[in-house]
Amino acid sequence: MTFATMLQALQGQVAIVEGGGDHTISVHAVTDDSRSIQPGSVFIAVQGERVDGHRFIPAAVQAGVAGLVSQQPVGNLSVPFVRVADSRKALGLLGSRFYGEPSSQMRMIGVTGTNGKTTTTYVCKALLEALGQRVGLIGTVGYQISGETIPASHTTPGALELQQLLAKMVAGNCTAAVMEVSSHALAQERVAGCEYDVAVFSNLTQDHLDFHKTMDEYFQAKLRLFTGLTGTRKSNKRAILNVDDPMGQRIKELCPAPVWTYALKTQADLRAEHVRLSLGGTTFTAATPAGSFPVESHLVGEHNVYNLLSAIGVALNEGATPDQIRAAVRQVTNVPGRFERVTAGQAFTVVVDYAHTEDALVRLLTAAEALKAGRIITVFGCGGDRDRGKRPKMGRAAVRYSDVVVLTSDNPRTEDPLSILQEVETGVAEALKERPHVEYRKVTDRREAIHAAVQEARAGDMVLIAGKGHEDYQIIGTQKIHFDDREVAREAIERCRARA
Prior knowledge:
Elements: H1 3-7, E1 14-18, E2 29-31, E3 41-44, H2 57-62, E4 67-70, E5 81-84, H3 87-98, E6 107-112, H4 117-130, E7 135-138, E8 143-145, E9 148-150, H5 159-171, E10 176-180, H6 183-187, E11 198-201, H7 209-212, H8 215-227, E12 238-242, H9 246-254, E13 259-263, E14 270-278, E15 281-288, E16 291-297, H10 302-317, H11 322-331, E17 340-341, E18 349-353, H12 358-371, E19 376-380, H13 391-401, E20 404-407, H14 417-434, E21 439-442, H15 446-456, E22 462-466, E23 473-476, E24 479-482, H16 485-499
Parallel strand pairs: 2-3, 3-4, 4-5, 6-10, 6-11, 7-10, 11-12, 12-13, 13-14, 18-22, 19-20, 19-22, 20-21
Antiparallel strand pairs: 1-5, 7-8, 8-9, 14-15, 15-16, 17-18, 23-24
Helix pairs in contact: 3-5, 4-10, 4-11, 12-13, 13-14, 15-16
């Protein structure tokens, strides 16, 4: 592929074509990392959060690049140079062209929202596989391609890594890709060059305001997934929207593609009726455009009814029958770190969950409240270097729905763990005025906190360990150390049994 051929992917993004050299030279790689430049590479200079790629243009020329792409003027060059309005967007578009436009060769399912993305993508994958499709998955827990699981660098990877993964799926004969699409990825144009067939909206609650600054800015980022559903070569497009969430209603009004809505509390195209919840799972009747049919799932909690409804909508859009859906849903036993039970012979329930926002924590706690036999003992913290506004809100939520609260560290990163806990404690203190009977303690060390919660538990109690879910690490300062809530919980249970 030549540099001139690659530029056809920019779809009007080119502002100025400058520089000398041969525009018909073959391109062997495309990169935004100056350290990986080889002769024949196209280097795309991106203004990063910490490093400005434009600083490395002279080094790229010296390394023998076949072409350069930049947002800034760079003077006279001896190689082909293209100036664009947005080099982040150009990165995705050129990466897609270089890797053979892989998203155009598969059905692409994108799921966005504050909570529920991971569970929804896992269920979607199972349902599409029931149709005989070979399905790749990209999300928070990992990237799955043809039986291989690759550790996730981000919920939605960088633009070039994403196009490489999609190309690998095509090479592995995948017919569909299901992926979590984060607000960061949409705002940073990481999914530029992707053509989506179906877009799912789960909900929108406060998170990531350290990045987006306002809730409207956060919403506008999510909206881009849906406004981008038209104007491509693909057909059978659809948006699937939770209209129990007011933002789902807003997206419905703004989305140019056909829409199916889903809800539990309002009228919608897909509804769950006669819902029954237990620790063993969930049953309900799905009322859908294909008729009504019973659903039995191992997933626990009302929030998972929403996730199941949206995945059922995806499957119906892709041609699944009610019988295929029912059989596939029964096969999904759990999603890593999402209401994941830890069992080691104890007489109480221990659950590990990724809930790290106020809304997610409330969903987890209300699910537990509906299922509990004894007390709810909640262990949680808040991450450092992230949205500080949600910290007191999470503290209030924990106290309002728990009998015992153990406040501890999450991933403190470069913040002082005690300073983070003090901000959470302002919400804890407010809620304790209304619920003074709630037992509260602060244990900064997360391992000690989990052990303390397990030691506190009696028969019939439920211990909820929230915030990290599937993560097998803790970030303290700039160091990432091994830490898995599930392992620590099992260790604590076994220690208690050994003492008994």
